[in-house]
Design a protein that fits this description.
Elements: H1 2-111, H2 126-134, E1 155-159, H3 166-173, H4 177-184, E2 196-201
Antiparallel strand pairs: 1-2
Keywords: Coiled coil, Signal
GO molecular function: lytic endotransglycosylase activity
Protein name: LysM peptidoglycan-binding domain-containing protein
């Protein structure tokens, strides 16, 4: 009877060990699957992080390129603006010169004297020619010697071009507007294209 009890106890113990072994194996397999899944997720995250880092670097390079292009375009725009300003200034000067020229031409038309007679001296009456030829020359005591006195210095002349003004000529040749008026006997600042002006003394 005792032997039977012992045998039953051994059978029960064997069954328990078998059951426990199955549980341990299933737990090991589950932990192994979880570990593999975690490693796979970690690899995916590392790959995604590398891709994001590469994308950030590319964006930074593009931003630097865009900034350089923006600076270049800004410089080009500034150069175009300066060129437009110079062109506008030249156009204004040209319009001013043309207006002064038209004004001078209108004034010249108003004050132009009648054309002198083209009668040649040979066509004068012979008695008048003879009397003129025989008339003695009377020196003028107030005038003195009429021989021109040569200047010690030579004059610097300038031919007026479109856009020239007395103010610009005075700055160009380092003199004053009053001097240019005095040398050329000008009543105002009106000058004509092609006109020769004294702008200095050597």
């Amino acid at each position: 009877m005792t032997a039977i009890k012992i045998g039953c106890a051994l059978m029960v113990a064997g069954l328990c060990l078998a059951t426990t072994g199955c549980v341990f194996k299933e737990t090991y397999e589950a932990e192994k699957a979880r570990s593999l899944n975690f490693q796979r997720l970690l690899a995916q995250e590392e790959k995604r992080t590398a891709e994001l880092d590469s994308e950030v670097k590319r964006v930074k390079r593009d931003a630097a390129d865009y900034e350089a292009r923006n600076r270049e375009l800004s410089a080009q725009v500034q150069a175009v603006r300066e060129q437009l300003a110079r062109s506008q200034e030249e156009a204004d000067s040209l319009r001013e010169a043309m207006a002064l020229q038209e004004k001078a031409q209108m004034q010249m038309k108003r004050i132009t004297p009648p054309a002198p007679s083209k009668t040649k001296p040979s066509e004068l009456l012979p008695p008048l020619q003879e009397s003129i030829a025989k008339a003695p020359e009377v020196p003028d005591p107030l005038m003195g010697d009429s021989t021109p006195v040569p200047l010690d210095r030579r004059t610097v002349q300038h031919v007026v071009k479109p856009g020239d003004t007395i103010f610009r000529l005075s700055r160009k040749y380092g003199t004053s507007v009053a001097k240019i008026r005095e040398w050329n006997r000008l009543q105002d600042d009106i000058i004509e294209v092609g006109q020769k002006l004294i702008v200095g003394m050597e």
